[in-house]
Amino acid sequence: MAALLIELISLGQYLYIRQDISKDLERDAERYLTLKTLITRDVLNTSEKTLQTHMLEIQHNLHEPDSMFESVRKIVHMHPNAIGSGIAFVPYYYPQKGRLFEPYARRQDGKITVRQVAGENHDYTKSDFYITMLEKKTTLWTNPYTDQIAGDTLVTTLSEPFFDGKEFIGVLCLDITLELLDDTLNTRLNYPSSYCMLLTEDGKLISQPSQEAYRKHDIPQIINLVNDKTVERRKSNTECEIISFRDNQTHKKGTIFYKEVEGKTKWKLVLVCYNEEVYHNLYVVTVIVSCLMLIALIILSFIIHRFIRNERRLNEVRYEQERIASELRIATSIQMSMLPQKNDIPEDCQDMMVAGKLLPAKAVGGDLYDYFVRDGKLFFCIGDVSGKGVPAAMVMAVTRTLFRASAARENQPARIMQAINDMVVVNNERGFFVTLFVGILDLPTGRLRYCNAGHDAPILIGGQGGQGVQVVQDLTVKANLPVGIIEHYDYEWQECTISRGTSLFLFTDGLTEAMNNQHQMFGRERVMENLTSIIHHPSPITLLQTMTEKVQQFVDGAEQSDDLTMLAIRYMPVDEKYKVYEQLTLKNEVKEVSRLNQFVKDTTARIGLDTATSYKIRLALEEAVVNVINYAYSKTKQGEVIIEMMANDKHLRIIITDSGMHFDPTMAEKPDTTLAVEERPIGKMGILLMRELMDTINYERINGKNVLRMELFIKQPSI
Amino acid sequence: MINITIQELEKENEVVLKGELDTAAAEEVEQKLRPLYESNGKDVVIDCTELEYIASSGLRILINILKAANSNNCKVILRHVNDGIRTVLHITGVDGLFEII
Fold first, then answer.
1. A558 and A607 share a domain?
2. A434 shares a domain with A409
């Protein structure tokens, strides 16, 4: 489409310029012809005047025949174009000069020689001009002819009759060159094939174009066209006639310009041009321009095509980036939502405070931490997935989910670790691994069970050191393989008991390996130093804030390549003073439940609890004790169940201790209450009731004894 | 202490439970209600107006009666259940199994 438009523009341009050129040509041709005719006319006029001027002198000197020589010499001398001048007298005008007398002056090589030229060899009375003159006795111009003596120049002769009184006595002649005509013929216009011709009044060719023109073109056709009055022609303002024609020989189009030389001669000066040549340059230029434009167009369209394609690609890339960015934002928010939430820790938990912080280096990180409280135990973990970006983040998400799932039904850290490991190993084609620390802090006792899979050892802050001073020290960890490497790897777990007031600080290597612009690492020593400096203000949130500030000061704006994750847990000192403390020892017999009921009634009355609360406590305690009797002890073996019940204004705590077999009611799965009655297991309802009726149940096996703690927060403390 | 009355009426078997059905009492209650473990084709109405307490062992007996009744396309209706017991039924998820009026 665009190509067509461009070619049309070219065509328009071509036609416009062509018209312009054609006008130019016309103007040039007219000018040329006008000039030429004027010059010719001028030469002819001058000649006529010269003869008329000298006519008087000659007539005056007729009595002296020899003075005629001087007269013709003068004429030649006077007229710049004259090459000769003579006077042909009628026979025997001067009897002393014989029959013929013609004094003649001739200019040759710039010199003028004068002599009598008539003789028997040169009998002018037989010449055309003389005979014509005898008839017409008026001014006559011969048709131009080529004079050998004068070279190949075109020569014309002006003849003027002269009289003695009324008697015709001779002819005065002047030969003049039409050199001027010759000189510029064929050279006026810059078209080699154009040529000029001079035609007589009756249309005879007198000045021939070059031989080459003769060969190439049909000259007679031109002459015919000019002479044939029926041929269509137009006249310009300057009396120049113009004929368009097609050459018979070459079939080329051409234009004939011709103009009459006014005055007595009526010669016609003809100029012929051929269109092909006139418009040749234009044609060539147009073709070249068209081609160039076409090429330019092709290049342009190629460039535009490329540009559009690139733009489209760029847009696609931009869109893709935008999409990825938006997905990354979603991933970030998903990842952040996988961090522990407020409700992962019971609101009224007095035993510990915990705070975590994850600063991803990129939109999504491969670090993780998690914590939640179940059955009076804080389950927590911190980990670092090898690699970065989205793949690491996905492994992180999987690991965190696995931690949640397995820690929901396991109280033993190595088993949690194994469960995570076995799942991560499967389909781990990309060879990811996770350094992971899993810990379980039993809140009533401070017993810390943990399993470390290749992670940085956590740091213990405060608590009592060997010499009773507060210290900052590493938690001793065994070297287990990171998660995700070997299936069924046998993880070793450890345990220790931490005293109230102790904090535990966990972190990923993003902290120790935080790098400043001098390529120095923050390092574990600095971590320890900073922890030492804040040993007396160890609230987990302050601790993390301080550590974050310190590490940011250290790196001083240097871009971090690794995620930075920290987790701080403080095992709170609790003031445990109870207003009421009661104890009851039962035998492992069901009928003892009656005693238990009485005990609960009495104690709750002492504490000042309402009937509904008392009812809940009685039921939960009965279920707990019946479970111990039924499951911890075999029927035949005698044993004891010790029940302690204590309360202050805020909460009530029940501790049930027995020496039976290991029996952890918190590990029992919840019955599926959606099943039909026939499919429903009869057991487990008791444990469900315990869980639902009390705020916390917590189990620990301590010194070969089952210790079950149940807690109820008293919402409306009695007065 | 628990007091149990069983009465075979024209259209239904009526059980009246009075007192506290705890684990200690469960054995005795089970003994007394055992006839109901064999369905006679009548619905069972258990009046709980004066039932003050029930533990999971008591629920177990009620569920056993229900199983027997259901196998004969009969219903077990708990009548006049107090809030405390209603809560227990709800927590254990057995409230949906009985018709409670």
1. no
2. yes
Which domain covers residue A586, as residue numbers?
Answer: 580-713
Contact A403, A420 (CB under 8 A): yes
Chain-chain contact of B23 with A590 (C-beta, under 8 angstroms): yes
If asked whether residues A525 and A596 sit together in one domain, one would say no
Evaluate whether residue A1 is within a structural domain: no
Residue A16 falls within a domain, yes or no?
no
Which residue from A minimizes the CA distance to B94?
A: A673
> Per the structure, how many domains does chain A have?
3
Return the DSSP state at B72: T
Kindly list the domain boundaries of chain B, sorted by start residue: 20-94
Which of A101-105, A121-125, A189-193, A647-651 ranks highest by mean pLDDT?
A101-105
Mutate to test the interface with A, among B2, B20, B22, B64 (most CBs of A within 10 A): B22
Quick check: B23 and A692 CB within 8 A?
no
pLDDT tens by residue, B7-43? 888 888 899 999 999 888 888 898 888 888 887 788 8
Cβ pair A437, A506 in contact under 8 A: yes
Classified as helix, coil or strand, A678 is helix
Residue range A379-427, pLDDT digits in tens: 999 999 887 777 888 888 888 889 999 998 889 999 999 999 998 888 7
- Nearest CB to A623; choose among B55, B63, B94: B55
How many angstroms separate the CA atoms of A148 and A150, rounded?
A: 5
Query: Do A460 and A595 fall into the same domain?
Result: no
Is A552's Cβ below 8 Å from some Cβ in B? no
Do A593 and A553 share a structural domain?
Answer: no
- Please give the helix or strand (H or E) that residue A283 lies within, else none: helix A280-337
Which CATH number does the domain housing residue A609 bear?
Answer: 3.30.565.10
Distance CA A485, CA A462 (A): 35
For an interface test with B, give the residue of A615, A617, A629, A694 to mutate (most B CBs within 10 A): A615
Alpha-carbon distance of A653 to A621, in angstroms, equals 11
According to DSSP, the residues that pair with A437 across neighbouring strands are A382, A452
Q: Which residue has the tokens 């013609």?
A: A102
Cα A54 from chain centroid? 93
Contacts of A558 (CB under 8 A, 6+ apart): A515, A516, A517
The CATH code of the domain that includes A458 is 3.60.40.10
Name the residue with higher pLDDT: B84 or A343: B84
Residue A550 lies in a domain: yes
Q: B88 — contact with chain A (CB < 8 Å)?
A: yes
ipTM of the complex, rounded to two decimals = 0.91
Minimum Cα–Cα distance from A595: chain B residue: B24
CATH architecture of B20-94: 2-Layer Sandwich (3.30)
CATH of the domain at A89: 3.30.450.20
Using a CB-CB distance cutoff of 8 angstroms, which residues of chain A are in contact with residue B74? Answer: none
Torsion of CA A605, A610, A611, A614, to 10 degrees: -60
| Most B CBs within 10 Å, among A685, A691, A693, A694, to test the B interface | A685
Among A180, A204, A220, where does a domain finish? A180
Closest CB from B22, B66, B93 relative to A622 = B22
Secondary element (H or E) of residue A400: helix A389-407
- Are A677 and B56 inside 8 Å of each other by CB? no
Residue A615 to residue A603: CA distance in whole angstroms:
12
Residues in chain B: 101
Same domain, A364 and A494: yes
Domain boundary among A180, A202, A227: A180
| A20 lies in some domain | no
**What does each C-alpha distance from B68 to A636, A671, B34 come to in angstroms?**
32, 21, 11
pLDDT in tens, A24-73: 878 888 887 887 777 778 878 888 888 888 888 888 888 888 888 888 88
Distance (Å, rounded) from C-alpha A591 to C-alpha A604?
A: 21
